[in-house]
Each structure stands twice: as structure tokens, then as C-alpha cells.
Amino acid sequence: MTREELIAEIVNPAGVNEADLAVAIVSRREAGRITLPTMKAALGLIRAYPELKTVIINCDNASQDGTREAFFAAEAEVPRIYVSTPPGLEGRGLNIQNALTLAARLNVKALAVADANLLSIKTIWIKSLFDPLLKQEADYVAPLYVRHRHETPLTRWLVYPLFRAVFGRRVLEPVGGEHAFERRMIKVFQNAAFEADDRGFRADLKMLALAVMNRARICQSFMAHPRLSAAGELDGDLPRAFANVARAVFDLMAETWDYWPGIGRSRPTALAGANEAIKTPPPQVKTDRARLTSRFMELGQRHQYAWGRIFPRLAGDLGRVLATSSQGGAPRVTGDLWRASLYAASAFGARDEAARDEAAAALAPIFLGRFLAGLDEDLGLSAREVNARVEEESLDFERTKPELTALWRERLE
Q1: Residue 10 has pLDDT above 90, yes or no
Q2: The domain containing residue 55 runs over which residues?
Q3: Rounded distance, CA 51 to CA 124, Å?
Q4: 271-295 residue pLDDT tens
Q5: Which of the listed residues 272, 297, 327 is the one where a domain comes to its end?
Q6: Average pLDDT of span 358-380
């Protein structure tokens, strides 16, 4: 399907045909929530860039709940455009593809992307995302939110260390949700295909990888507030959410195999707003250890046979962890065991998409075991000490990257 075929409808009441800046708000049945990000984006644009031509684009999935009407009804003194995918074609990736198409048509200098279900969006976020681009300090801006140490386990134990080792860039929130990029990167992204995505963050991961591969100047921008969004169906199902994100990362690794084996040590990424103080502390995160332990045992028993095929050298160690938990002990998946399992799972599906699904599912209980062990390891540590631990574990991923590359070569060559 071509880019033009992804657009089923465009509503442009103000007749906007060019703009300097655009904010794309991606949505799927968000009539009850899209008003807030629309109003905040408009205020942010007016306050920070009154001299520029700006527009807000709602990139929607043909929602029938009144999302389009709520978008246009929001009190916002910025021109707005609504664009929709054809009915039945849904997903964040397709919405982002439409955002790129319209941004190119409007010849914008920069485009920012935000989710429609944001509950904590601040007007200052618009400036935080666009300023590094407009000051010509960056080509691609990723956010850095105020987070509780256990708020984003998928980022901490999966996406950040693996992306850092594979692509050689230290971006603390590779799937932060909001990001911005300038005109050259819009053209680069337009040449890529973005699949319909069920919370695997494929589009976000692919854009960041393409930015790295195209030698873009990448910048993180400190947002000074937590990121809060409405809960989705996957927020209560950590194993399923993990499998979706892991599969997206594995797909990206397969797609870019010709590139990443040649990357050595990682590079740091600049941080705009580093001197800003935290404006709002993160909410406390309560972890239901008993429920996670129960899920670890349930899924571990379900996938134990697959462990023998996917992680033949690790199956014994994993089986002992599972046996200990079955006898009432806490799961003790060490950092080394987790990293080795992750490497083996990623390589297992190097040639076969179906195998990636199987590997991601089999890896999910091991991830839960690593999360539970990490909770114990973090006890008594300060935030600074936890951050140091994250960096140390991520550096271990970099040091052992030759093992990852060797596993992939074994499967591919």
C-alpha cells in the first residue's frame, strides 16, 4: 500500500497549505481524551513561537467515537487538520506515516509527535521538543521524562541496554512516545515503511534507528515532569506487552543486520535542559510481587520445553530458577543469565518471523524473573545508585556484543 492509499480522509477547515511547525497527535478512539493534548499543544505553540506558522494535525484511525469532532471542538487558536487511515487499518505506525506525508506536503521545518491519550502533557513540552531543532543543535529530539525507578521495566531491562549495544547510542527513552525531528529526517522517514503496531513501538524504534544510521544529530530533552497516559489493554499484562516490544526489537535487528554488527562502543547523547529542576515528582509505583511471581511460574512452566530449543545452553540454569520459585523461593534471574537469554532469543528468529514470536513469548517469563530480581537488587539504593547500576548493566551488554553478533552469524551464515 502506498503512502497516498493510507489516507482515506483529510479535513482542513482553515485551508492550511504550508506551515513552519506541525504537531501530530496520533489517536485511535480517543474522543474523551484528545481535547487536552490539543489545547496544550496549541498553547505551547502560541507561547513559544508566535511569529511562526503552526498547525496541529490529528492523525486518526477512522475512529467512530467522535474523536474528530472532539479534536475540532477543543479551544485552540491554532489551525487544525484531521487525517484518517481507511477503516480497518489501525495502528500508531500508520498514523505516523500519515503525519509524515502531511508534514512533507506542508513543507514544515519540524514535526513533533504526541499521543492523544496523554494526561500529563504540559505546554512547555512543545518548546522542549522543538527548540533544539530550531536552534540547529539537533536533527532528532527524544524526550527524557521524570520517572520512578520501577516505572518502565521494559525500557530498563530490554530496550535501553539492547538498543545501546546494537546501535551504539545512549538514548534513555528509545520509546518515549513523544519526539520531534526536522525536515531532512522527515524525508528519510518517508522512505521507510511503518507497520500497523499494537503497542510494540515499532515506528518509534525504527525512527530512532534510522536517525542513528543516517548520522543525525540526536538530542534528549529533559521534560521536567512525569509522563502519564490513560491505561490501555496491555498495561495490565506485562508479559504480553514485553512480547510485543521484544518482537519489535527483534524485527528491527533483522532488518538492519547489514548495519549493526559493525558498531562498537556506544556514544553518549546530548541532553537539552539538563539544568532544569524537576517540576513534578513521579508517582509512586507499587509492584505486585506475588502476582508477578505467580505469572513467572505459570509462564515458565508453559515455555520450559521451548527453552530447551531456544536457549539450549541456558535451559538448565533457567530450570533451576523455576524450580526454586516453585518451592517458594524468589526468582533469581541474574543480569548475566538475562542478557544471555535475550541474546539467544533475538538470534533464534534471525531468519524466521514466526520464530521471533515464539522466542519473544518464551523470553517473557525470564524477563519477569529479571524484573523481580532487580527489585531486590535495588533495595536500599538511592536514585543515583540505581542509575549507576543501569549504566553498569548496559555497559555489560556492550562488552558482550561480540557474543550477540556471533549468535546471529551462526543463524544467518
Answers
A1: yes
A2: 4-272
A3: 17
A4: 999 999 999 999 988 899 999 999 9
A5: 272
A6: 96
167 contacts 212 by C-beta, under 8 angstroms: yes
In a domain, 281, yes or no: no
Burial (CB count within 10 angstroms: exposed 0-12, middle 13-18, buried 19+), residue 350:
buried
Do 75 and 197 have their domain in common?
yes
From residue 205, give the alpha-carbon distance in Å to each of 16, 98, 253, 399.
30, 17, 10, 22
For the domain that residue 181 is a member of, what is the CATH number? 3.90.550.10
48 Cα distance to chain centroid: 27
Domain count, the chain: 2
Contacts of 402 (CB under 8 A, 6+ apart): none
Q: Strand 179-182 vs strand 218-222: parallel, antiparallel, or unpaired?
A: unpaired
Decide: residue 91, CB within 10 A, 0-12 exposed, 13-18 middle, 19+ buried. Answer: buried
Q: Is residue 284 part of a domain?
A: no
Identify the DSSP state of 42: H
Q: What is the pTM of this model?
A: 0.96
Residue 407 and residue 347 in one domain: yes
- Of the residues 272, 301, 330, which one is the last residue of a structural domain? 272
Per residue in 84-119, pLDDT (tens digit) is 999 999 999 999 999 999 999 999 999 999 999 999
DSSP one-letter code for 199: S
Distance (Å, rounded) from C-alpha 265 to C-alpha 270? 16
Residue at 244 is within a domain: yes
Q: Please give the order of strands across the beta sheet that includes 110-115.
A: 9-11, 80-84, 54-60, 21-27, 110-115, 179-182, 140-144, 218-222, 270-272
Q: Do residues 229 and 326 both lie within one domain?
A: no
Is a pLDDT exceeding 60 seen at residue 258?
A: yes
- Rounded Cα–Cα distance for residues 185 and 112 (Å): 12
